[in-house]
Write a structure and sequence with these properties.
The protein is α/β, with parallel strands linked by helices. It is built from 14 helices and 15 strands. The model has no long low-confidence stretch (mean pLDDT 92). It binds one RNA strand through helix 2, helix 3 and helix 13.
Length: 414
Amino acid sequence: MAIDTPKPVRGTQDIFGAEAEAFAFVVETFERVRRLYRFRRVEMPVFERTDVFSRSLGETTDVVSKEMYSFLDRGGESLTLRPEFTAGIARAYLTDGWRQYAPLKVATHGPLFRYERPQKGRYRQFHQLDAEIIGAAEPQADVELLAMADQLLKELGVADGVVLQLNTLGDAASRDKWRAALIEHFRSVAAELSEDSQQRLEHNPLRILDSKEERDRRFVADAPQIDQFLSGEAQDFFGAVTGGLDAAGVAWTRNPALVRGLDYYRHTAFEFVTDRLGAQGTVLGGGRYDGLMESLGGPETPAVGWAAGIERLAMLVGARGEDVTDVIIVAESDDTIHLAIKATARFRELGYSAELLASGSPRKRFDKAAKSGANAIVSLRTDMSGVTSNVREANPAAGKIEQAWLQMKPFILP
RNA sequence: GCGAUCGUAGCUCAGUUGGUUAGAGCGCCGGUUUGUGGUACCGGAGGUCGCGGGUUCAAACCCCGUCGAUCGCCCCA
């Protein structure tokens, strides 16, 4: 009776080989860069009580109603696999007394879960890098955060073809006025908008601005812009951010159509965008979310943050080779296997990556080792003169390995 | 939720207008050759042709359904 092999869950991925190396490279680079900017590492739970997300995102939104992995635990409590980092970090800031550290710069990375249709650069379990500055109202925090993002992309070697798009949503009052003006503008031409955008007019009018429909374009082009509604303070804030970016040497372009769907976003919104990833071009995005803490029952707390998809960054980084093995020890005859094990252990103690090759047809073992592209091969075999060894150096990097072998040889061979 | 394309060996893919026992390369295993050697040759294992139904004398191939993958739409915290 054959047993069916369980299939992987839709939207999950098993990352292996060169892709896994690219993934690790992204994470390692992030860890290095966040230390340069003195962001403190935090480890967050992978699941939270559902209200952590539903209250911060808004009960009625699509994201909450159908794109979260929510379930009842055995105690009957509704829990949710985290679909983002920000809400959980905000919760911890309030419940763990992190206010004492404000302004607090934290960074983390790990898996997130969203119930969505998989497509290029989009998975149901995916992974993000995340950086937040909490309790900092000043525009310098935005600049610092963006400078780190910019340096990260440069150090990953993916900055080419990636542009920082920047916008401001203003303070709450500016934002509300802009929103009202947009609704009025689009409502007057509603019949001529695309079907999708007519829907958006009802529940998310700001999204009409980045509609992909050709027929929406001309109405988007002459839509009211946020600049007409910005208060003096909001203008000053945005000016301080852009001025700071210029001083930090961070290139940016204004995108007045860049918006955020959620109400808690204020002031700065930004995305690093590329055209090299198909329909999912945002590589890193974030903004200022001064209104979030209050939705979780906390005091008014200014904060700004970003997140970046590790898979998308890894795709831009491209496949990366795995490290070549320093040395392969080949037991060319079975009676040398114990000697080969000993030698392998010794090489590893000395800090060389070493692989033992002692299986399969003895006469093909050396060829297999040679094909693997290791820096050096030490082969052992018994012939009429006893156990003999042979070192083969594939490249100049192997000189030290031969020296190491010559030193350990008297202690290993009989 | 919607649409398009695609599912043949571990991997990459052939497979003609439907026609005998479904193939190749790579990889894997074994043998021979070579014997400081990454060579060459021979052999072997490995397939419910995603799954289920239908049409037909006959289906990997045509039709329907289903599952999965990919890409896009919607959405995007």
